[in-house]
Design a protein that fits this description.
By secondary structure, this protein is mainly alpha-helical. It contains seven helices and no strands. The model has no long low-confidence stretch (mean pLDDT about 90).
């Protein structure tokens, strides 16, 4: 019987870990997010893991964390398109919003619920505002 060789198959999504983290931390800076808010948006990783990611700008990410980063980057992109002034785009997140989706609260408050579905809903809302919905 021939000797079996083990081949390690690398998850293709792992190639997105470092670029995703770098983009997230740039976005967090633009949005002036506190560390607790950043952790919440990333899915509440342990504090030590979060600070390691922040320091190294890399690290293994779960599918959930990558999905969250993807929604957040989409939200950032939508805001940049909807608001030609970057400061206005970044400030929108914290402003109270009368759309039924937000009930007078800010989009950031909705996003900080901890549920990835809320990131999806905010992204969908902004896509619709752009005419993509």
């Amino acid at each position: 019987m021939p000797h079996a060789t083990r081949v390690a198959i690398k998850d293709p999504s792992s190639q997105l870990d470092a670029p995703g983290l770098r983009a997230f931390f740039r976005l967090a800076e633009a949005w002036k997010l506190r560390a607790a808010e950043q952790r919440r948006l990333l899915g509440d990783p342990p504090e030590s893991t979060f600070y390691k990611w922040k320091r190294l700008q890399q690290g293994p990410l779960s599918r959930d964390t990558l999905e969250r980063i993807s929604y957040l980057l989409g939200i950032w992109k939508d805001l940049q398109i909807l608001f030609p002034d970057p400061a206005q785009a970044d400030a929108w997140l914290r402003k109270p919003n009368q759309a039924s989706l937000f009930g007078g609260h800010s989009a950031l408050e909705r996003m900080l619920s901890g549920n990835v579905a809320d990131l999806y809903v905010v992204r969908q809302y902004l896509d619709a505002q752009r005419g993509w919905g």
